[in-house]
Design a protein that fits this description.
alpha/beta; Rossmann fold; three-stranded mixed beta sheet; 15% strand; binds guanosine-5'-diphosphate
Length: 311
């Protein structure tokens, strides 16, 4: 069990995942949370990170800081996705070990699995086949992070765990149309189409790819359980166990937002991997299940968007 006064460093606390973790930890009564703004601590800077850990010596480290983006950003900026993520994770993981952290949780992603992995994807599919090219740079960095955590576990007995969430959405998601993931992008597009009284909304790709979506508050609750109960360096998937096609997602979002025009498909944009559904039996066996149905989660996220992003 984690002590409510243990010092927990959440790296990436302004992001969608980090901010959900901070909300959850606070609501569970954890009172000694450590966070640093980017302007005070650049996680890409190895000496700054080493100094910060030497001074603060957090007992638990949650590594939710990463350069992330949707299919287009990943495809357009492979150098930045590879280099910045390697730097951040190498610095934080090494400093956590060297300053005596008793546990570290590294956040990976479901895109680490091969493009044509069996569906639903079991944890054992890691490194069993070629990757999806559109996000290979990000994925290679994430796989390196998993391997570094496993190396610390094997060589130095560190309790460093790696969690693979499926596609996430929720408050503090990125709603920029060039760099966002699909759910946030379509929420914004549907909202703007409705506001402008457009008759059509353009969606990227063919609409055929299938994705699984999990509200980030559900991810945060799973991470808390894993911090308390999971002490293996073997990776573990976090998902809801159901996927839908991009077409169905677009239709659902239009319904929630109240846009009743037509969908158009921009097939000059990539589809990416055909299907990405995680096998979540390992997590289910620990007694966890999600609590936010997709339609409710989208409605909640739309409310957040209206309150925080809509002009
Ligand atoms: P992925 O899961 O890594 O492929 O990342 P995304 O969430 O960016 O894309 C998921 C799927 O949604 C891909 O097939 C995209 O082509 C499709 N998609 C449809 N419309 C959009 C959009 O406006 N933005 C993004 N990012 N993806 C879109």
């Amino acid at each position: 069990m984690m002590d409510k006064s243990e010092k927990i460093f959440v790296a990436g606390h302004h992001g969608m995942v980090g901010s959900a973790l901070v909300r959850r930890l606070k609501s569970e009564g954890f009172s000694n949370l450590l966070v640093r703004d980017r302007s005070k601590l650049d996680l890409r800077d190895d000496s700054a990170v080493a100094k910060f850990f030497a001074e603060e010596k957090p007992s638990v480290v949650i590594l939710a800081a990463a350069k992330v983006g949707g299919i287009k950003a990943n495809n357009d900026f492979p150098v930045e996705f590879l280099l910045e993520n390697l730097r951040i994770q190498n610095n934080v993981i090494q400093a956590a070990y060297e300053n005596g952290a008793r546990k570290l949780l590294f956040l990976g992603s479901s895109c680490i699995y091969p493009k044509f992995a069996p569906q639903p994807i079991p944890e054992t599919a890691l490194l069993s086949g070629p990757l999806e090219p559109t996000n290979e740079a990000y994925v290679i960095a994430k796989i390196a992070g998993i391997k570094l955590c496993q190396a610390y576990a094997r060589e130095y007995d560190a309790n460093f765990i790696s969690v693979m969430p499926t596609n996430l959405y929720g408050p503090n998601d990125n709603f920029d149309l060039e760099t966002s993931h699909v759910l946030a992008a379509l929420l914004r597009k549907a909202h703007e189409a409705k506001t402008r009284k457009d008759r059509k909304l353009t969606v990227w790709g063919s609409g055929k790819p299938r994705r699984e979506f999990l509200h980030v508050d559900d991810l945060a609750s799973a991470c808390l359980l894993l911090l308390e109960k999971y002490d293996s360096s073997e990776i573990i998937n976090v998902g809801c166990g159901e996927d839908i096609s991009i077409r169905e997602l677009a239709e659902l979002i239009c319904e929630v937002v109240g846009f009743d025009g037509d969908l158009a498909w921009d097939v000059t944009k990539p589809d990416g991997t055909p299907r990405k559904l995680l096998d979540v039996s390992k997590l289910r066996a620990l007694g966890w299940k999600p609590s936010i149905p997709l339609r409710d989660g989208i409605a909640r996220t739309y409310e957040w968007f209206l309150a925080n992003c809509a002009r």
